[in-house]
Design brief:
Layout (H helix, E strand, L loop, with lengths): L5 H14 L16 H17 L4 E7 L3 H7 L5 E6 L3 E3 L4 E5 L7 E10 L9 H6 L1 E11 L10 H6 L4 E6 L3 E2 L5 H7 L4 E6 L2 E7 L7 H14 L11 E6 L4 E2 L5 E7 L6 E6 L1
Parallel strand pairs: 1-11, 3-7, 4-14
Antiparallel strand pairs: 1-2, 5-6, 5-11, 5-12, 6-7, 6-8, 9-10, 9-13, 13-14
């Protein structure tokens, strides 16, 4: 088997996470022709291994939901990876705690989370996309890099669980048919403020997620459809639809709060524990 064998690389990544040992040279920098097709093969093997231990996949997270990054990194679309039943947490009364002590160097990202009520394939228009959604919520995606100094390329990102460490989901808001036209208008326009220990540290908007989280969800569905080896996007899946601000490093003892303006979702607070 070659160094590009997905089973070998998956085991390397699993070991790195299990023993909290950084990977000094990512696969894309090893001269083994590691591309996105190779990365998705590793991601599929990681999914198989996790399911073999009894874990369940519950949805997808996206990465590179910014077309400016596509041009810089020669990407044709965004990328994705699975999320699991032991990495997704639902906040109680929009207040949650999460242990990050065993993570390498976690960062926090406020995102819009969708739950699908039916399969979604090649649909791009926000109106049609939202008709397939059961609810939306404000969430915190926690990302963590097993690669030294956060140096990696998109294939490395995909192969490392999409850097997905955890997703904290706030109180969902059910989408009724009559709400959809308003949401189509609000999702690109709403603003988000991110606070650390009561101090404003980042601001962003729905436009930062591929011009609208709904457009991002549609692009994810279309991108998955174009990959013949990808599992289709099904009903009941959660989708974390891309960061709304710059990612921010986080540490135990901090309290993070996201506040929205222009979208009727409650504030979400996360307390980082050791």
């Amino acid at each position: 088997m070659s160094d590009n064998d997905p089973k070998i690389l998956a085991q390397e990544l699993m070991s790195a996470y299990a023993h909290a040992q950084l990977i000094p040279v990512p696969p894309s920098a090893r001269g083994i022709g590691f591309d996105l097709a190779s990365a998705y093969a590793v991601e599929a093997e990681l999914t198989r291994l996790r399911r073999a231990t009894g874990r369940k996949t519950v949805g997808r997270k996206v990465g590179y939901a910014n077309k400016a990054l596509w041009r810089m990194l020669t990407l044709e679309t965004l990328v994705w990876a699975h999320m699991y039943d032991d990495t997704v947490v639902f906040a109680q009364d929009n207040d949650a705690s999460l242990s990050i002590g065993r993570m390498f160097s976690p960062k926090i990202e406020p995102e819009i989370v969708f739950k699908l009520k039916e399969p979604l394939s090649s649909i791009a228009e926000p109106l049609a996309v939202l008709q397939a959604v059961e609810w939306l919520a404000l969430g915190f995606e926690i990302i963590d890099s097993p690669y030294a100094d956060w140096k990696f390329q998109p294939p490395d990102f995909v192969a490392a669980f999409g850097l997905h460490a955890a997703l904290v989901v706030g109180t969902p808001r059910r989408i009724e048919p009559e709400m959809i036209p308003t949401l189509v208008d609000q999702l690109p326009r709403f603003k988000v403020s991110l606070f650390k220990d009561g101090q404003l540290v980042e601001e962003g908007s729905g436009r930062n997620s591929l011009r609208s989280p709904a457009l991002c969800l549609g692009e994810l569905a279309s991108a998955i459809t174009r990959r013949s080896d990808a599992e289709p996007l099904m009903g009941n899946e959660l989708v974390s639809s891309g960061t709304l601000t710059e990612s921010r490093p986080m540490a135990p003892g901090e309290k993070w709060t996201a506040v929205l303006d222009g979208l009727d979702l409650p504030d979400l607070t996360l307390r980082a524990l050791s």
